[in-house]
Write a structure and sequence with these properties.
flat; mainly alpha; MetI-like fold; 2 strands; about 350 residues
Length: about 350
């Protein structure tokens, strides 16, 4: 006689333990569920409004005859304009280079343990950052009224060298001196902030390893400080480029003064101002691109994820994806036609 199969009794949960969840049948719709991105109508509406506004601005610039774009094209590369642009670029490079050189000295004095040097540096920065640039340029241009002669010698004693300021400070030299002293005050704070951004623990570790001060400055302080200095220095470079237009009050033939001479004779004010504006935009764009790549150079190793791709790298990657998609589509067409 066969004995019936006896089913094992269900196991009882231990005291204090949670009961197992009841078995449920698999959901047949789970495998076919599709993730739908969240709709964002506000973003599309704002993008459409921004594009509409941009199209309106472009249309007003292109169809407004008051701009006289034909005159702009004729004067854009004229000899007088190019000479003024060359002088503007030269002034920007010279004043910024000398300004950062003097600013580095001032930043070192500001970080010095000598209270006299710290005080003198602070007073210099305070004075030149507190007065307008135009006032400084006019004071240097009229320095002959304050000091007819400048001498070198013993204080309250005889002078060994004397120079008349009327023959010393011309318009161009006044612009160089005034802008350099002004940029030095701002550059000192930029350099000081970059040096202070370096962790003091790294300097202590370098000193414990017996590294020299020059090697610590060159291999540890400067590379890390440049990550903080370069963005602000790039903004200073662009500001210095546009700030050179202020020297037109001294009759220095920079870019703005050159176009002013033209429209004072031809009365074509708007097109000549557009010539200067477009040149400033072009030079500023080139400087911004250079600043971007300099920042990337000094940002190496700052993050573990690495640097993000550049716009050129993104464009190349998109072009390769388009070519791959086009080649795959073209390769699949004959097979589909033959079915």
């Amino acid at each position: 006689m066969a004995t019936p199969d006896v089913l094992p009794a269900p196991a009882r949960p231990l005291p204090g333990s949670a009961a197992p969840p009841p078995a449920t049948a698999p959901d047949p719709t789970a495998a076919t569920a599709r993730i739908v991105p969240r709709r964002r109508p506000g973003q599309w509406a704002s993008a459409a409004a921004a594009l509409l506004l941009f199209a309106m601005v472009v249309n007003s610039l292109a169809r407004n005859k008051a701009f006289q774009w034909d005159v702009v094209a004729d004067w854009f590369t004229a000899a007088s304009v190019m000479n003024g642009l060359t002088l503007t670029l030269w002034l920007t490079a010279v004043t910024l280079a000398l300004g950062f050189l003097l600013g580095t000295v001032l930043a070192t004095m500001r970080l010095s343990a000598n209270p006299v040097l710290r005080t003198l540096s602070w007073v210099y920065i305070w004075i030149f950052r507190s007065t307008p640039a135009l006032v400084q340029l006019l004071l240097f241009f009229n320095i002959g009224a304050l000091y007819p002669t400048l001498g070198l010698g013993i204080p309250f004693g005889p002078e060994f060298l004397t120079v008349r300021t009327v023959n010393l400070f011309g318009p161009t030299l006044t612009a160089v001196v005034g802008l350099t002293l002004l940029e030095a005050a701002y550059a000192a704070e930029v350099v000081r902030g970059g040096i202070l951004s370096v962790d003091r623990g790294q300097l202590e570790a370098a000193s414990a390893l017996g590294l020299g001060r020059w090697r610590v400055l060159r291999r540890i302080v400067v590379p890390q400080a440049m990550r903080s200095i370069v963005p602000t220095a790039g903004n200073m470079l662009i500001s210095a480029l546009k700030g050179t237009s202020i020297i037109s009050v001294l009759a220095v033939s920079d870019l703005l003064y050159s176009v002013q001479l033209v429209y004072l004779q031809s009365y074509q004010v708007i097109p000549m101002l557009m010539v200067a504006t477009i040149w400033y935009i072009v030079i500023t764009t080139v400087l911004s691109v250079g600043q971007y790549y300099v920042e990337r150079h000094y940002a190496k190793g700052a993050t573990r994820e690495g640097l993000p791709p550049t716009p050129l790298q993104k464009a190349r990657a998109g072009y390769r994806r388009l070519r791959a998609a086009a080649s795959s589509d073209s390769a699949g067409l004959p097979g589909e036609a033959g079915r």
